[in-house]
Amino acid sequence: MAKKLFMFEKPLGMRDTLPFLYELKKQVRSVMAEEIERWGYEFIETPTLEYYETVGAASAIADHRLFKLLDQQGHTLVLRPDMTAPIARVAASRLYEDGNPLRLAYNANVFRAQQREGGRPAEFEQIGVELIGDGTVTADAEVISLMVALLKRVGLGRFSVAVGHIGYVNALFLEILGNEERASVLRRFLYEKNYVGYREHVKSWPLSSIDQKRLLDLLSLRGGTDVIEQAKTLVTSEEGRRSADELAALMAALRTYGVAEAVKLDMALVSHMSYYTGILFEVYAEQVGFPIGNGGRYDDLLAKFSRPAPATGFGLRVDRLIEAIGETDVRDDIECIVFSQERLAEAVELAEAKRAEGKRVVLQHIAGIRDIDAYSQRYRSIVYLLGRSGRDGQ
Amino acid sequence: MLTIAMPKGRIFEEAVELLRRADYALPPEFTESRKLVIDVPEENMRFILAKPMDVVTYVEHGVADLGIAGKDVLMEEERDVYELLDLQISRCHLAVAGLPGAKMNEIAPRVATKYPNIASTYFREQGEQVEIIRLNGSIELAPLIGLADRIVDIVSTGRTLRENGLVELERIAEVTSRLIVNPASYRLNGGDIERLVDRLAAVIPQP
After folding, report:
1. I need a surface site. Which of A23, A86, A117, A299 has the fewest CB within 10 A?
2. ipTM score here?
3. Domain text from the record (chain B) (predicted)?
4. Does pLDDT of A391 surpass 60?
5. Contacts of residue A182, Cβ cutoff 8 Å, sequence gap at least 6
6. Distance CA B171, CA B173 (A)
7. Range of the domain at B14
8. Is residue A83 marked as binding?
9. Is A391 within a domain?
């Protein structure tokens, strides 16, 4: 039996953006887009609908969180759950031709089904960049620095970027545990942030006390650059050391960019079970309990579109960012001209002149207003062109 | 300032005792108060008192930096929070119970519980198809009056089960209270939280 819908109801997790919030979003979005463009990234758009088999399967978002539907030929479609997979598709098919680095940016709504607490947004706006075809650590440093630059530009107060390296975690697990199954058990505990379960599991396995300690020490490797030296003492494999060296190079580059103080290392950071392949990060801000953005290196994704290439990038959630920035004064500077019929020509002329100066002007016939007091409250300034006098009252 | 969400009831007193052992100067009338928000300026801490099931919600949304929650609640709610310490207090376990010798109804097997998510996952793992009936308390009543064949609930001493003529049939998981932390607080107030974790870790009773 279908539940009866209320008159004003929207599908679960879908929201309207009313003028005040729209204005806020627009400001934040345009400041960030401008900064992204200054760094030479080019914006692109991709379709809202993609094929489930290609983009849906390649996406980092879990299957049960995809909105799926069928097209008329019976293909399964998804509402894009992120922008990284569509951009990888475009890059692989069209733009990434000569193998040289490609800098792309996006600003789009993405869709993720929510199961818990129906009020959580299932559609939200993301702004972000993808740097494709550059496997160097400077590429990682560039995207993190750009993200920090954006957060500073929009006036975000306190925030912190947690940076880790999944290659390091995997190398440590593999050299101690010897097989991928056990490694993936521990990785899942870190992904679920369940450090209690992680410790219990490590202690329950028949490992030497030195190896147990190495695995347990991983959890406390958090902080500044000094953490990297400690991290190096835990691993012996080539891969593990190389990952630690990459983090050292990253921190050096971030210092050059002048953003190192916003960054904290966390060697136990695992923000996805399998998607990322190297340096990865999450960003948190005061006043918001959830991450406002995340990103990292995903060198395996382009290969899913038959065009292997290294890539890194980030996505910021505009809604959470606005929550973190808090209420700012973005009263829309709209002027209103209220006119009566006989002065229409004059009103149109005045409005055009003001619009030509870049002002926002509402032109409203007096006869269309029911309550002039309430109406005039809405606007910062109001000009009356009424009657035949030819004089305008303020 | 750190805000800590505490579960009202049984766990609260044990948690307060643990904090005192960790040298936190909590006022003597602390546990008797009926206030829902208690500030302890000497320690730069604020405590909020919530229903045990709601502690994880406050922490996930970041209105509390930390919280103390039973593993049962964490398993049921599956919230995105850091589980940093096993406090080894309020020990109990999650179990399946029923009337002695009573078989599952083959036509309409029913399980009553306060933990629909845990119960459903458990029986799906076993490959059993059961109907889960959600109750909010006095779960032991369900098999006695024929609402369900089995219950899933926490058992500490087993006294409530015994007094109602029920027996424990299967053990699902061990439960103790955990220290949980909001991910953003973990990143932004790392120092304060780390100190609290270290001080608590030093006084946790070893099992």
Report:
1. A117
2. 0.89
3. Lacks the C-terminal regulatory region which is replaced by HisZ.
4. no
5. A173, A205
6. 6
7. 2-90+176-203
8. yes
9. no
